[in-house]
Amino acid sequence: MRISFSPSPFLFRLYRNSLCTTPTISSQNPSIPPTESQIPNTPFSKDEISLHSVVTQDHVIVTLLSQQNDPSGALHYFQWAEKQRGFVNSVDVFCILVHILVSSRRDSDVFQLLNQYISGDSSTSPTVFVDHLIETSKKCVLDNNNNNNRVFSYVLNSYIRAGRIDNAIECYDRLVECDVVTSIWCFNDFLRALVRTNRNQKAMDVYKEFVGKRIECDCATLDLVMHACLKHGKPNEAVKYFQKMKEKGLELDPISYNTVIHAACKELRLMVACVYLKEMRKMGWIPSDNLYIAVIGVCLKKGNVMKAVKLKDEMVKSGIPMNVVVGTRLMKGYCVQGNLQSALDIFSEMTESGISPNRVTYAVLIEGCYRNRNVEKAYELYNEMRGRGILPSAYTFNSLIRVCLDTHSIEKVDEIFDEAVKCGVANIFTYNILITWFCREGRVTEACNVWDKMVDIGVEPSVVSYNNLISGYCRQGNMDSASVAFCEMLEKHIKPNVITYSILMDGYFKKGETDQAFRLHDQMLSLGIAPTDLTFNTIINGLCKAARTHEASEILKNFMKDGFTPTCMTYNSIINGFIKEGSVSTALATYWEMCESGISSSVVTYTSLIDGCCKSNCLDLALKVLGAMKSRGLQVEVAAYYALIDGFCKKGDMRGAQALFNELGQVGLTPNTIIYNCLIGGFKNVNMNEAISLYKRMGKEGLSCDSKTYSTLIDGSLKAGNVQFASELYAEMIAKGIKPDVNTCTALVNGVRKAGQLEDARKVLEELDRKKIPPSVLIYNILIAGYFKKGNIEEAFRMHDEMLDRGLVPNDATLDILVNSKFEENVSNSGA
Q1: Are 780 and 745 within 8 A, CB to CB?
Q2: How confident is the model at residue 771 (pLDDT cuts 50, 70, 90)?
Q3: Which residue, 281, 345, 489, 677, has most beta carbons within 10 Å?
Q4: Is residue 721 situated within a structural domain?
Q5: Is the separation of the CB atoms in 753 and 761 below 8 Å?
Q6: How many domains does the chain have?
Q7: 478: which DSSP letter?
Q8: Can you tell me whether residue 33 is helix, strand or coil?
């Protein structure tokens, strides 16, 4: 853009004092004063100068203008005039000299003058300086278009070189207001200074303004504005600037491509990054390894591991060897996908190529082993890492501890934990991992041991530490210890959070101490801790478990007024509560209320409703709920089938129970021991052969019988008169290490006694002694009645005395047997 000039009047407007003074510019050889012959010719005679005895600004301005074609003489005269008595330099004088020197390409002199002027304390503001430069340019007879462009570029550049960026911005803004355009090299310097000093938004603004004037910019300009966008957190803008300049035909260079690809990577725009990477290669430019690393990283973040591997192969083919960063990133990509083996293959490829893995590499692989629960490989990598002399970070130790805990490799946990403490890298997260796990496993004592170690080495417990310990105590029902831990937390000025209060409230609810739970809720509110959905659900679930479901339903309405939005879990607690209280109709009404609220039912909802209907003997309604569950495409769980099978068995409808049992296998579910026990119990009284058949089927399917299975089968066999099979079942039960309960032994003793095998019945009692199972009065009653029936009165009374010695108190049935010899009737009445 050219500056238009008007005819120049001869006299200049004078500026005085603070607005016009400049620092003194020393002559090139200040020790030698100029001679009279060295004083340039001026329109004023030497006599006039002598008479005035003061060199005025008018004299200097006129003389400088007369010396436009002699820049050396003009500079020499200016330096002489500066030393004269009473001469006060002005902005106009300085500006005229600058114009003269620029026109003669005296660049070094110009920069020296400008740097000295701009660095001085008495320099005028950039706005005033620019105005004077524009005004004085009109007085000079020069090649105005080209020279003035250079003058303003030099001035702006001088502000930048002096580090006065705010002055540079003021100077640039004034130039724009005056429609003056600097050279492209100066504009790039200005942009560079803005980006360097993090004035990125300003850089983007001046770039838009510059390009908006249809002024040609170069690759350096584009690269600088793209960097400004990246630093300002607007990588998408950088890509747009690149695309726009590319469309305009700007001849781009590798640096611009490098920057735009990094910008695309910041935005995770994989397609854009890959397109420009391909263009670079087509132009014969080899992308750097850092560029490949960036694009590969985006591939992995997008989950496209195959593309990342192709880029790695392409990089190697281009002559750039795979490095530890690329290899590690590829391993992490595979590990995130759960493909540990492929990650290990990359690891092997890398080490075989002579690339040494670093601490991050091992951390990624050990974390991958944790995700895959491969404790052996994790431990192997750990040992290899230590063998290379690489100290694992806390993150790596924590991953190792997690995988060992998940696989219950407790011995390895102790070893790794001790090593982490010894190396000094165990942090609060390390201790919290252990404390959390032990508390979840119900091993609170061991959690406390870890806690003591943590405190002993000076690691301060966090709110998470206390939350986990309190949770462990609450799971045990040990609310006293939980309360002590909570008080200790407060004493140490560790502020409890909403999770802390929710855990404690849940613990008190489970203990039935609802008043204490609500006191904690009030305390939480008084401290300004806002309840969350967890808090609301804890209160509702706690009331339901305390058989106060109607109260929970009413509180829910109040919570909803406070902004709480109930979820399916909330309604499940209420539905399950009503079912446990026997209010199936109310549970169904709550279900319909949930549906009307637009909340979808879950498997838990339907399972609870099926269980409730079955317990209320509403089997037809339970089957309808099952049908609704299937129609919604929900996977029916084993628990729902158990509720239905149990309901049909209790009703005596074994055909219906068997049909549901068969359906269980058809839908891909495997019946468990509980369901088999339910069916065996149902068939025990109607078809013992079918019960035995189910028992044998359990063995074929690899299901273990429990004490209830054996008790039911033994009782059924004895009632069917099959004492031999009952005895075999009992022997099998003992051989498997299953501890028989009193009911099992009672059934067996009574069955054997009825078969007339009193000695075998006595052996069952002896077996109870060996298993340290206390016998019941009922068992002694059975044996006493049996000996009376056989006429062995002495043994009957001896058994009575033995019963007394064991601390068992005879009941009315015992006395009737001893006094009245009412054998079968009293044994029957006593519950055998």
Answers
A1: no
A2: low
A3: 677
A4: no
A5: yes
A6: 1
A7: -
A8: coil
CA atoms within 13 A on the CB side of 259: 26
User: Cα separation of 802 and 708, whole Å?
Assistant: 29
- Burial class of residue 94 (count of CB atoms within 10 Å of its CB; 0-12, 13-18, 19+): buried
Whole-number pLDDT of residue 500: 96
Q: What global pTM score does this model have?
A: 0.64
Please give the torsion angle defined by the CA atoms of residues 363, 369, 375 and 378, in that order, rounded to the nearest 10 degrees: -30
CB 197 within 8 A of CB 231: no
Query: CA-CA distances (angstroms) from residue 580 to 305, 570, 573, 594?
Result: 51, 16, 11, 19
pLDDT averaged over every residue in the chain: 83
How is residue 581 written in tokens? Answer: 């209280």
In which residue are the tokens 């079912």 written? 579
Q: Taking residues 301-324, report their average pLDDT.
A: 91
Indicate whether 409 belongs to any domain: no
For the chain, helix (H) and strand (E) counts, in that order, are 47, 0
Q: How would you write 731-792 as a 3-class SS string?
A: HHHHHCCCCCCHHHHHHHHHHHHHCCCHHHHHHHHHHHHHCCCCCCHHHHHHHHHHHHHHCC
The CATH code of the domain that includes 81 is 1.25.40
**pLDDT tens digits, residue range 564-594?**
899 999 999 999 999 989 899 999 999 999 9
Q: Which residue has the tokens 């492929």?
A: 342
Give the number of C-alpha atoms closer than 13 A to the C-alpha of residue 807, restricted to the C-beta side: 1
The structure tokens listed for 407 are 């696989």
Distance, in Å, from the CA atom of 646 to the CA atom of 395, rounded to the nearest integer, reads 50
Identify whether 169 is part of a domain. yes
Query: Where would I find the H helices in 267-408?
Result: 270-282, 289-301, 305-317, 324-336, 340-352, 359-371, 375-387, 394-406
User: Is there a domain that residue 502 lies in?
Assistant: no
- Report the distance separating Cα 162 and Cα 129, nearest Å: 16
Residue pair 818/799 in contact (Cβ under 8 Å)? The answer is no
pLDDT at position 119 over 90:
no
Tokens 């006694």 — which residue? 753
Tokens of 785: 């009645």
State yes or no: pLDDT of 30 exceeds 80: no
Angle 812-814-820 from CA coordinates, rounded to 5°: 90
Domain of 138, in residue numbers:
56-182
For residue 236, give every residue at least 6 positions away whose Cβ sits within 8 Å of its Cβ, in sequence order, or none.
Answer: 263, 267
